[in-house]
Amino acid sequence: MSSDASTQNRTVLGADCSIAGDLSIDNDATLLGQFEGELRVSRSLEIGGSARARGTIMAGAVMMSGEAEAVIIAEQVVHLLPGCRVKGRIFAPQLQVEEGAMFDGELCVSPNAIEAAESHMKSSQASARPSMHESAPGGHDVQTVPSAVATLLERRRQQQSASEAQAA
């Protein structure tokens, strides 16, 4: 695919955007504005230096330059770039942290990170007490979406089955 084609297939949420809610993007995406809620990107997500995100972020790969208070789940890699500030949990098979990046939270870097995310989120919801339950303004939970994680797991199983069928 040419770089022109990949640029045309990228969804950009500009610096002047402020979105609250659930958003699914079946494409590459760039976030430059404010996002609060659940963001699912099927391919790569770039969170620019001007961006602020709170909630749950799921993508094939995440490149972070901005700020986030979130659960971040990546199928491939999370890359924390200089100047980024992340507070929360990261689940990914691979993590890259550049000098100058800031992270405060819990990490699960493993080939089974998505499964770990699903397990962690289910147990967090089961043990959450109303007085300790954290919720973003607008009622968006920071630790939700086992169903979306299950979708990632199903996609992984389908890819593995297709690979096994090709190898046979």
Automatic annotation (TrEMBL):
Residues 118-168 are annotated as: Disordered. It holds the Pfam family Bactofilin. InterPro entries: BacA/B. It comes from the Bacteria. Residues 159-168 have a biased composition (Low complexity). Signal peptide: none annotated. PANTHER family: HYPOTHETICAL CYTOSOLIC PROTEIN, POLYMER-FORMING CYTOSKELETAL PROTEIN. Belongs to the bactofilin family. This is BacA-like protein. It comes from Mucisphaera calidilacus.
